[in-house]
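Appendix B: complex inputs.
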Amino acid sequence: MVGGPEDIRRLARRVALEAEQVREVAAQVSATRSVSWQSATASAFRDSVTLCVLSLHHTAELLDTAARFLLAHASAVQSVVDALPLVGGAVHHGRRRGGDR
Amino acid sequence: MSDGGLRVRGGVGGTTVGLAALEEASGRLAGSAQDIAASLARTLLVAADPGLAGVAPAVVTAAAAEGALALAVGPAGLAGDAARLVGLVTATAATVSAYRAVDAEVARTVALTQDAVMFVVGSQAPELAVGVLALEALGVDVGGALDRAVWEVPAVADLAGGAEGLVAGLRSDPLTAPLLTPGAAADAEGPGGPRTYEDALAVLADSAAVWGLLDDSGPVHMQREPAGPSGASAPRSLEELVRGQGPLSDPADHPGRIRVVEVPTGTGPVWLVEVSGTQVWDPRTGANPCDVTTDVRAMAQESTALARGVQEALDQAQAESRAGSDGAGSGGTGSGAAGPASAGGPGRDASTEPVMLVGHSLGGIVAAGLASSPAFTARHRVTHVVTAGSPVARMPVPAGVQVLSLEHHQDPVPRLEGAPNPDRSGWVTATRDLDDGRDGTGSEAHGVGEYAATAAAVDRSTDPSLVAWRDGSEAFFHPAEGAQVVVRDYRIARGAP
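Resulting structure:
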């Protein structure tokens, strides 16, 4: 089954929304660094949380990229759809010309 | 952590509070991991949507979109994030558990080791006593040698925490077993000896009482004394408070002395109760209750004459304050003006007024004991305790009381219970290492002068636990502007008046 351009744009919006949600999660995860305990264990915890936050932001960018690719795909499909009447008209015109002969 | 030569344990920056915060953070991370897993599931549904299939001219853009989605849900994207968060949650939970397990195991092992060593000491007591006497006869100052030894190897004093082992050892020797009297305290013993450290001390003290030693029974009386010229003032800092313990504990000038300081604040008075340290080192019981007998009985968490006297003194001071009369001998000091110390009157409820109990050595033991006494806390709202060089780790001080314990690494006295003070939000222990290359003694390390220097370091410290303690105790050191601080001194004595 091939989706129409609007279906694909809807998928793109869903993916873009996921990117925003991942950024919100990143902010929540980042807040756990506020543990005030001064110790080697707490420092290691904060370092690990920092790595998680960086990774989450990277994932959000990947989702943004995927959303953009989906929109590009929707545009490409839209172009195909827009071109169909022209192609159909040309084929019909050709057939008529062939029949005339 | 270390701050200005101090090692700080407990309080808001302590391990217990830190582990609880880590646990709480870990719980929030678990929630975040669930959110990412849900996001992964939704994005996978997008990637699997049949509408993404490309038509011939758009097959390249379809492939590009599918590739980008695969990257976003893969190990470098959502799946990896979920795994990382779950891993962090698991590792944090394991770390917290390991911390607690190690703490508990270390405490158990230390207690067993102390008991084992002290069992040997108890079972060899006659031989050891003969050995000590022989050394003394040869001119060896055994006491002095021990005093120097605890400076070099302070952990020796921790062995005193094995009192249960000592009693079991003494019972195992036919020469010493008869000296341990079966009595009320003996009920606390199980087949292997006393069940707790406090039970063991009670057995030892009760056995000594048969010989007229360490006997704290009988009445107590309390009388008002003039607040002496030496140190009879309101402390403005922890250093001044601790330094004041020196003159207060002078057995010649101030036998059995208790000081109650009424500090007026904008919302009513707060009360500083200063208890003298040990003044009499004779185990034979005398009139002065600031003695070894009270040391042992208070460490056994028994009611003592001195503690009863402190309660009477505070009761009387608060009654005088409510009545608005201040008898002869009042050492009024303070902020300049001569206004009444406290607003209110006979109808004031003194049981709600904050009390800080303070003491060096024995004074600290009694302070922590009173803070742990339901009978005392029913009458007085103990909010703060300050101990300096006191073995108080086993005192069941309620969690709501803010305790500050000052200790020195080389001081054997606070080690006598063989256990570290609790690490919790309301109990901060500041330990100073006095080792600067000199040849010191345990007695020097126990001195009030050194503790005043440690208190000064606490006053200056930026450690979060100490800063929080200072903030919470500020009212005791800063009377209301223009109001008069009232210092009342009392003498506590055993026996009838």
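The helical segments of chain A are 5-31, 40-100.
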